[in-house]
Design goal:
Number of domains: 1
Radius of gyration: 19 Å
Largest sheet: 5 strands, mixed, barrel
Oligomer: single chain
Number of helices: 1
Distance between the termini: 61 Å
């Protein structure tokens, strides 16, 4: 019985590891000079962080992992390493409807 249980655990661990690949692995990692802006907490109708790269304004998918020192209503110049995740519907603040936003996952960010 113990052998069957161990075999089952081994197969379960193998199955989980085989199918738990991170989708971001296949995405191109980009590095850019950007500006990050804090528009306020969601709880008080803010929209969190925005990252401006050139003419495009991106919404970080993992903004909860961005350090509080970046929370400024004035743009902060940064060097950012990220992957683009495409467009998604996003709604925050007082906006009545969701809008399409370009989404990124920030891998690293540092002030310039």
């Amino acid at each position: 019985m113990k052998i069957i249980f161990r075999y089952f655990l081994l197969m379960a661990a193998f199955t989980v590891s085989a199918f738990s690949c991170d989708k971001d692995e296949d995405l191109e990692v980009l590095e850019e000079v950007a500006a990050i802006t804090w528009s306020g907490d969601y709880a008080v109708d803010g929209c969190g962080f925005h990252v401006q790269i050139g003419e495009t304004r991106f919404k970080p998918a993992n903004e909860a992992s961005i350090d509080n020192s970046f929370k400024s209503h004035e743009p902060i110049p940064v060097e950012v390493k990220f992957v683009q995740l495409g467009q998604r519907d996003f709604q925050c603040g007082m906006l009545p409807m969701a809008t399409k936003k370009e989404i990124i996952r920030i891998l690293s960010i540092k002030k310039m």
